[in-house]
Write a structure and sequence with these properties.
This protein is of the alpha+beta class and 327 residues long. The chain has 10 helices and 9 strands. The longest helix has 32 residues. It is globular and about 60 Å long. 36% of the residues are buried.
Length: 327
């Protein structure tokens, strides 16, 4: 959700000068940003050109003050993540148009539109390595905010503003998920730092494979299985929102090889795909409803996740744990 902050080239050049990374050749807006304003920059220094990403922070990240340290930890662990570049004073944040900005190298690659199994497996391996690399951080990362209270608060915003059948599906699903999150066995599921937003438009592939993971603004401490549920909903569903067994099993199997899943995680995986789907449905709905009055907000289509919620509600996905070790 954002109205893209328009850049003034003079102010942009003043900000870039504080990084001492070269002279600006051109800049252009990234098309995928929703919550923050992102611009690609091409700079020249010593007869060579490099591209960077400038992020104007429109909304604070879920990880708060831990955001930069988390990216640094991922980069130091060898994950395909761009670390934040410090300005000449050593600060990770600078300022532009009265807003905080972050600068990072642009990672090469393209977003997959119709991912193949090998790409899903590559993302599964990244996710497992990410969970393992962030398991013993020396700084706290806040809890994932989309809990039961958040779901109920967002649901209240939609009351009286949706068709009856849509609202009934939404309300029933929120009730189911809120109840799920109160269970003692669910509360005992493995937790750690999650990315929280591993959609296709946040992952880059080149001819060699997975080359970059972007947008850690949703990163927080949460249930590790939630990351796999988010991936499954975006990477493993068909046009109707139904989980494809081959892709879903490939995802879980590749992840399990690096970080073995517990039996309880496997049991609750279908419930977490419903949880993740309704959370993103509500997130998109709240922005879409706000856009009706604001008019200039950008948002993703909430109906995509309504279809996924409908399918998950009608057909719970069964995952046989024996398939994870099948070669």
């Amino acid at each position: 959700m954002n109205a893209v902050t328009q850049l003034d080239v003079l102010h942009l050049e003043q900000t870039i000068a504080r990084y001492d990374i070269g002279e600006l050749i051109r800049y252009w807006p990234a098309t995928n940003g929703i919550e923050n304003s992102n611009y690609f920059l091409r700079l020249s220094r010593e007869n060579s050109e490099r591209e960077y990403v400038l992020t104007i922070v429109e909304q604070p990240s879920h990880s708060g003050a831990a955001y930069v340290s988390l990216l640094d930890a991922c980069f130091e662990a060898g994950l395909p993540v761009a670390s934040v570049i410090r300005n000449a004073e050593g600060n990770p944040y600078d300022e532009l148009a009265g807003k905080p900005v972050l600068l990072a190298r642009r990672l090469a690659g393209r977003h997959p539109h119709n991912p193949i199994v090998k790409q899903i497996e590559a993302l599964a391996r990244f996710t497992a390595r990410f969970h393992l690399a962030t398991a013993r951080l020396e700084f706290p990362v806040p809890d994932y905010p989309r809990d039961a209270d958040w779901l109920l608060d967002k649901l209240a915003i939609t009351e009286g503003r949706l068709p009856y059948t849509s609202y009934r599906l939404l309300a029933d699903t929120v009730a189911r998920v809120a109840s799920l999150l109160t269970r003692r066995d669910v509360r005992g599921l493995p937790k750690g730092v999650i990315h929280g937003d591993l959609f296709r438009d946040n992952v880059l592939f080149n001819e060699r494979g997975l080359n970059g993971v972007l947008d850690f603004h949703h990163a927080a401490t949460g249930y590790l299985i939630y990351d796999l549920a988010v991936i499954a909903n975006d990477w493993c569903t068909d046009a109707n929102g139904t989980l494809d067994p081959e892709r879903t099993v490939a995802l879980m199997r590749a992840y399990n090889r690096l970080r073995p899943l517990t039996r309880h995680e496997l049991w609750f995986f279908p419930s977490f795909t419903l949880y993740a789907a309704v959370a993103f449905w509500l997130s998109r709905l709240s922005v879409a409803l706000q856009a009706q009055s604001a008019g200039n907000l950008r948002f993703n289509n909430p109906e995509e996740f309504q279809r996924i919620v409908q399918q998950h509600s009608a057909h719970s996905f069964y995952l046989d744990e024996r398939l994870l070790n099948f070669e």
